[in-house]
Amino acid sequence: MSLRIALDDSLCTGHGRCYALAPALFDSDDAGRSVLLAGENGEIGEEHRAAAEAAVANCPERAITLSDSLSDSLSEA
Ligand code: SF4
Fold first, then answer.
1. Is residue 25 within 6 Å of ligand 1 at its C-beta?
2. pTM value surpassing 0.70
3. Least buried of 4, 39, 58, 68, by fewest C-beta within 10 Å?
4. Ligand 1 atom 6: the closest Cα is on which residue?
5. For residue range 38-47, what is the model confidence (pLDDT) as tens digits?
6. Quick check: CB of 52 below 6 Å from ligand 1?
7. Where are the chain's structural domains?
8. What distance in Å separates the CA atoms of residue 52 and residue 31, rounded to the nearest whole number?
9. What's the alpha-carbon Rg for the chain, to the nearest Å?
10. Could you tell me if 49 and 9 are in contact, meaning their C-beta atoms sit under 8 angstroms apart?
């Protein structure tokens, strides 16, 4: 089962905690706002779970969400 991460650009105000905590998942743009590095559909490997959860927990704007791809598929069925 893989994970899916999403970033809501409209909520991000550029505190930079996500790309400090999870540099494999996030980068910053010229204004310091977050840029998601995940692949298509935001899918990331299980090895990134801890970093992704840390980013979610530390984003002051709650701009990042994380879900299991399997539960997404089930809820869409
Ligand atoms: S921690 Fe949240 S508000 Fe800060 S740059 Fe990352 S997504 Fe944006």
1. no
2. yes
3. 39
4. 18
5. 888 999 999 9
6. no
7. 3-68
8. 22
9. 12
10. no
Query: The domain 3-68 is classified under which CATH number: 3.40.720.10, 3.90.470.20, 3.30.70.20, 1.10.287.130?
Result: 3.30.70.20
What confidence category does residue 2 fall into, taking pLDDT thresholds of 50, 70 and 90? Answer: confident
Whether ligand 1 lies within 6 angstroms of the CB of 61 is answered as yes
SS3 of 21-38: the string is HCCCCEEECCCCCEEECC
Contact present, 64 and 5 (Cβ < 8 Å) = yes
Polymer length of the chain:
77
**pLDDT number for residue 45:** 93
